[in-house]
Design a protein that fits this description.
Layout lengths: L11 H7 L37 H5 L11 H6 L8 H9 L8 H8 L3 H17 L4 E6 L2 E6 L4 H9 L8 H13 L2 E2 H8 L4 H9 L3 E6 L6 E5 L1 H7 L19 H7 L1
Antiparallel strand pairs: 1-2, 3-5, 4-5
């Protein structure tokens, strides 16, 4: 058997250490492996990191596979929300509503807990107030809605009405007050308080959305009326409990009126 030289018996590892190994696919001019600087040969730079921010072991144990990091579907499967934020979503919905929206409705649409929705709405309202925006987010009539700020009312009225104003008559205001403080109330009861037939006025208030039907009286079967959510919205009230006390606005000689509204 022919004897092999010491060079042919050199192991691959010994070849790398001694600098004899070359890349078979490269030309004869390819650099030796020993010519490639090792990590220990790289000069130390103060403040530089020699390892990535995420350890290799962390990548292997990550909930999202390395091959799926750039895939949006992988993020969605892990519960990562790619949609708009909560404040952005609330603003988008509230911009298109035509009446106050309840917190529970917003929570159902956005699939968020009600306390989280309530906190976000109050935060948005405070943000608009602090920034002195031309609009405001208010809680009225059991819900939330955007409104123009109070000190901008003259400008808004000038733009919308262009000098034209629509006001309730004195009879309508009186009837509306009786319904508000005595609701649910029948037409006969309103007429008894005002001393005049109020059927036409109640029809007008109903057509304007300030008054609505509230069932029938169990005894007389008369149709009952109450104020609507639109009434609360126009007055900026959360509920009828926020109506002002009536007694301070009545003359001293109207004891019968006080008894009527109790």
């Amino acid at each position: 058997m022919p004897q092999q030289s010491d060079e042919t018996l050199e192991s691959p590892a010994d070849a790398v250490i001694s600098g004899h190994a070359r890349d078979d696919s490269s030309s004869a001019d390819a650099p030796l492996v020993s010519d490639v600087p090792l990590v220990s040969d790289v000069p130390f730079v103060p403040g530089a990191r020699s390892t990535p921010d995420i350890a290799t072991s962390d990548i292997a144990t990550s909930d999202i596979a390395t091959s799926d990091i750039a895939t949006p579907d992988a993020w969605a499967s892990q519960g990562v929300d790619e949609g708009p934020g909560l404040h952005t979503a609330l603003e988008a919905i509230l911009l298109v509503v035509d009446e106050p929206v309840a917190e529970i409705t917003l929570a159902q649409v956005l699939e968020r807990p009600i306390p989280e929705i309530a906190t976000a709405l109050r935060a948005l309202s405070a943000e608009y107030t602090e920034a002195n925006r031309g609009f405001d987010l208010r809680q009225v009539a059991g819900g939330w809605r955007f409104y123009t700020r109070a000190d901008c009312a003259p400008l808004v009225e000038r733009f919308i009405r262009d000098g034209q104003q629509t006001r309730l008559t004195q009879a309508a205001l009186e009837t509306l007050a009786v319904v508000a403080y005595r609701q649910p109330v029948s037409r006969a009861r309103v007429a008894a308080v005002r001393g005049v037939n109020s059927d036409g006025v109640i029809r007008t208030l109903t057509a304007r959305g300030l008054v609505e039907e509230a069932g029938t009286d169990p005894e007389s079967q008369a149709l009952l009326y109450r104020t609507s959510s639109f009434f609360l919205e126009r007055l900026g009230l959360k509920s009828i409990d926020e109506l002002p006390e009536l007694a301070p606005f009545l003359p001293d000689d109207t004891e019968n009126y006080e008894e009527t509204f109790k």
